[in-house]
Specification:
Layout: H1 12-55, E1 63-66, E2 72-79, H2 87-104, E3 110-118, E4 121-128, H3 131-142, E5 150-154, H4 155-160, E6 168-171, E7 177-179, E8 190-194, E9 199-202, E10 204-210, E11 214-216, E12 219-221, E13 228-234
């Protein structure tokens, strides 16, 4: 005969209460796990979105980027650190302006590629379908009444138009002056000509610039009111 003392036998009501209690405990544990999973997924999605947003911040300073397809990206990077700055209001104003332009444009469409406020700065990227689109936007919305003198084309195209009139350029690679570049066998090199003071970047490598253009890394800074030339080699198709 076993010496183990048996405990009191549970009544049916007690067994039912124990089952219910165990189910409640199990349910609470499952709920906590589900909450933890949901929070984890939410944080992961938020992190991915943030990284994706940051990845799109290609331009860290204001500039005009000339794409290989001849569209232009107008990147505006401005201080947005004051408490009275209103992100929603700025976004609405930009959207209204672009909508107004597109409804009246004769040369193409403008598009808001990106608008982000981050670390006290506002990043606004606009895309102009063509150079003519940019010129129309410049003359009617940016600087009303002011003519935008700007040309983008190959060396051959600009020479045919008599636009390559300068005798002196600078070699971007070594910074040395170059007299009358002989590019007779390089007619496919691209040229940006402008009289406005801006910062330009391109899909490719800038090789030569005129005297009034300064280089800062891969960005060419032109001088307002001067004949500025930027000669570059387009990147090869991937």
């Amino acid at each position: 005969m076993s010496s183990h003392k048996k405990g009191r036998r549970l009544t049916r009501a007690e067994r039912r209460r124990r089952v219910i209690r165990n189910r409640i405990i199990f349910g609470c544990c499952c709920f906590v796990v589900l909450i933890a999973i949901a929070v984890g997924i939410s944080l992961t999605v938020k992190s991915c979105r943030q990284k994706k947003s940051e990845a799109k911040l290609t331009y860290k300073s204001s500039q005009i980027h000339v794409k290989k397809d001849k569209s232009l990206t107008l990147a505006y990077v401005e201080d947005f650190s004051k408490d009275y700055y209103n992100e929603a209001e700025l976004k609405k104003n930009v959207e209204n302006e672009i909508a107004s332009f597109n409804s009246n444009s004769k040369s193409g469409k403008m598009e808001i590629s990106q608008f982000v406020v981050k670390d006290g700065k506002a990043y606004l990227y606009l895309k102009a379908e063509t150079l003519d689109t940019y010129k129309e936007y410049f003359e009617n919305y940016m600087y009303q009444g002011q003519e935008c003198k700007m040309t983008i084309g190959t060396m051959g195209e600009l020479e045919e138009d008599g636009a390559m009139l300068l005798d002196h350029y600078k070699n971007v690679k070594n910074g040395k002056a170059v007299d009358k570049i002989d590019l007779s066998d390089q007619k496919s090199l691209m040229v940006i000509y402008t009289t406005q003071g801006e910062e330009f970047s391109v899909d490719g490598n800038i090789l030569y610039v005129s005297d009034k253009v300064e280089m800062d890394g891969s960005i060419a800074k032109t001088t307002d009111g001067e004949d500025n030339y930027i000669i570059y080699e387009e990147e090869e198709a991937s």
